[in-house]
Write a structure and sequence with these properties.
single chain; Ribonuclease iii, N-terminal Endonuclease Domain, Chain A; Double Stranded RNA Binding Domain; 3 domains; two-stranded antiparallel ribbon; 15 helices; 5 strands; ribonucleoprotein; transit peptide; ribonuclease III activity; RNase_III_sf; mitochondrion
């Protein structure tokens, strides 16, 4: 009887409170209020402390990853440079002598007793790219030097050497190799020149040097690569060698002499012909800059010069043989 009374009372209370459950009062939401979890700060701080304790993450090269396939990468590289090269030759061109020696040493430690000494010595010396790098470097330097002489026939040997060293510097070759997609293979692409020369011929090797190395001169300031010092002294010697008259400085324009921003415009004349002009804060600076402008015009490296002609086909034995003047052939005559 008592249980029945208790159940009836519970049912009555549920019926009275049912409308409140079905229609709850509206909840006021604060716009722009930010919630903050107290454990987040301590958790993130601990993660940051552990990250500093472990140190920076070591970058895993592509060649160390599980899905690396060297044969596929070598085949893809030959298609990128549009050359038909043997896979064995490309692998040898990408194998540095230090890696070859370390591999030979590992073979000696593992199976040294079962392999003869002559075979180990052959493994130590034959798999490296030292000879290919040397021959490729010589061919690339010779072609680049002759190419620069064709483009700038009046540039002195000092300027030719400066441009040559700029193109053959380690940083520039590494830049070319990176954008050819061989970062995980090798960072020095000169052995490729020797490989292309052996398998495709000298013409294709020179075309590779022209297309991927010499094109790095596009957009570069030749004056920054070959800085001209003592411009007036150089100009006097150059004009004397060419049989022209001595340079004569003339003040063309000037303004603001009594102010802090004075400007003098000086021109350099030789045989009554204007060969250079430039402004300057003082007469001495303007004269030196005018001589600098005259030298750039005489050398053919002025800012308004014609762009490089990469479409011209070069006679291989006219541009590469020492002691001969480089000659050009148009694409129609070739």
């Amino acid at each position: 009887m008592a249980l029945a009374k208790t159940c009836c009372g519970a049912i009555k209370r549920f019926r009275l409170e049912l409308p409140n459950f079905m229609n709850p009062p509206p909840i006021t939401v604060l716009q722009g209020a930010r919630t903050y979890k107290q454990h987040s700060y301590r958790y993130n701080k601990e993660l940051y402390r552990r990250r500093l304790k472990v140190g920076p993450i070591e970058v895993t090269p592509r060649s160390k990853q599980l899905n690396w396939n060297e044969d596929v990468e070598l085949e893809a590289f030959t298609h990128r440079i549009s050359e038909k090269l043997s896979r064995v030759g490309v692998r040898q061109a990408f194998t540095d002598m230090s890696y070859s020696r370390s591999t030979a040493q590992l073979v000696k430690e593992v199976i040294g007793d079962s392999v003869q000494g002559q075979e180990l010595d052959a493994l130590d010396t034959s798999a490296g790219n030292e000879q290919m790098a040397e021959s490729g470097d010589n061919l690339a330097r010779k072609f680049i030097k002759d190419f620069i002489k064709v483009q700038f026939p009046h540039l002195p040997e000092e300027g030719v050497g400066s441009i040559l060293e700029f193109l053959m510097s380690t940083g520039k070759l590494a830049h070319v190799g990176k954008h050819l997609g061989i970062t995980d293979l090798i960072l020095y692409d000169v052995p490729l020149v020797s490989l292309i020369n052996e398998e495709q011929g000298e013409e294709r090797a020179c075309a590779f040097v022209r297309d991927f190395i010499i094109t790095q001169l596009i957009g570069e300031d030749i004056d920054a690569i070959f800085p001209i010092t003592s411009a007036m002294t150089r100009l006097v010697g150059l004009l004397e060698k060419k049989g022209q008259g001595e340079p004569i400085s003339r003040l063309l324009e000037h303004c603001g002499q009594a102010t802090a921003v004075s400007c003098y415009f000086v021109g350099i004349y030789s045989d009554n012909e204007l060969i250079g002009k430039a402004p300057g804060e003082t007469l001495e600076i303007a004269e030196e800059m005018a001589a600098h402008d005259a030298l750039m015009s005489l050398y053919g490296i002025q800012e308004n010069r014609l762009p490089f002609d990469f479409n011209t086909t070069y006679k291989q034995y006219g541009i590469l043989n020492s002691g001969t003047q480089p000659t050009l052939l148009s694409s129609e005559q070739h």
